[in-house]
Amino acid sequence: MKKLLLLGAGYGNMRILLRVLNNLPADVEVTLVDRTSFHSLKTEFYALASGTVPDSDVRVALPTHERLKVIEGEIAGIEVKEKCVLLTDGKQLQYDQLVIGLGCEDNYHDVPGAEEFTHSIQTIGKSRETYKTLLNLNGGATVGIVGAGLSGIELASELRESRSDLNIKLFDRGPRILRDFPERLSNYIQSWFEKNDVDVIANSNITKVDENFLYNHEDQIEVDAVVWTAGIQPTKVVRELEVEKDNSHRIVLNQYHQIPGFEDVYVVGDIASLPHAPSAQLAEGQGEQIVTVLKHVWNSESLPETMPEIKLKGFMGSLGKKQGFAYLADRTVTGRIARLLKSGVLWMYKWHNG
């Protein structure tokens, strides 16, 4: 039997599973390794941490198949020359084809104290812990959110909706919210924060974090809890993999999403070096193309001369449960309609994934 091994139950590998299991060749078996026995909706972890949705709302059951084996475990190392994956419990898994979709973790940018004294929404487990911390804060406590990208914006707005008694400070490194997108979008989000008493601190530079203080430039700011949403980096296992990477430690690939020199290894999701910013949408597009390549390989067919460009539709974000924003086909959409669009996309995703 040919062995297809998938590492990580993220958006990319979920798309691969759903496509290959529908028409799995008789001589192929699939193994998926993840730290949990379910697929987590990482794009919704901000709501879990804020306490506005239950844990069950960000979990999706994995598909089932007689030739799919799911292993709960942590990856200790990947030996691409030996075609072997090592687990922390000592197990070794051999493969014929490997898809690495291990995702990212927080990037603290060497800021002293950031890793020790901040909370995270990068995994479902860390999001649960962040929720517990925020839930137990007294009224009037101050929460600092470092990083005003999509995750920081959604966390700040959702936390405001669940805890009107907290002081929320959102630290943005740029001169305005989402500075790389139309000013109308930035102004709408900024206006929402002003109306809902979220303090956005522009042009910030967090230089140090202590247990109860943030240091922005030379200013010392007292805080009761800090959540870090200021960038990501590939997981340690991926960073240690001895293959070519870009300046952000993401793995350089050929057009078939394979590691050059190790064409039996594919990479999907946030750890892939691509011309687009990491997103669930991009990972799913990669997953579709990887399935196409795998089918050619399994059938001993020549690969296509070129692969089509992955076209992204844009992005959507929420401001609480009633308002939102979207940037679709170079057009800005704000308000209730944008929030309904995001809710609809999430519902459709869950429906298509069973």
Automatic annotation (TrEMBL):
What EC designation does it have? 1.6.5.-
Keyword Flavoprotein attributed: yes
Q: Which residues form the FAD/NAD(P)-binding domain?
A: 3-283
Task: Say which enzyme class the record assigns.
Answer: oxidoreductase
What is its cofactor? FAD
Record's keyword terms, sorted: FAD, Flavoprotein, Oxidoreductase
SUPFAM superfamilies documented for this protein: FAD/NAD(P)-binding domain
Short name of one Pfam family for this protein?
Answer: Pyr_redox_2
The superkingdom of the source organism is Bacteria
Entry's Gene Ontology molecular function annotations: oxidoreductase activity
Member of which family? Belongs to the NADH dehydrogenase family.
Q: Mind telling me what this protein is named?
A: NAD(P)/FAD-dependent oxidoreductase
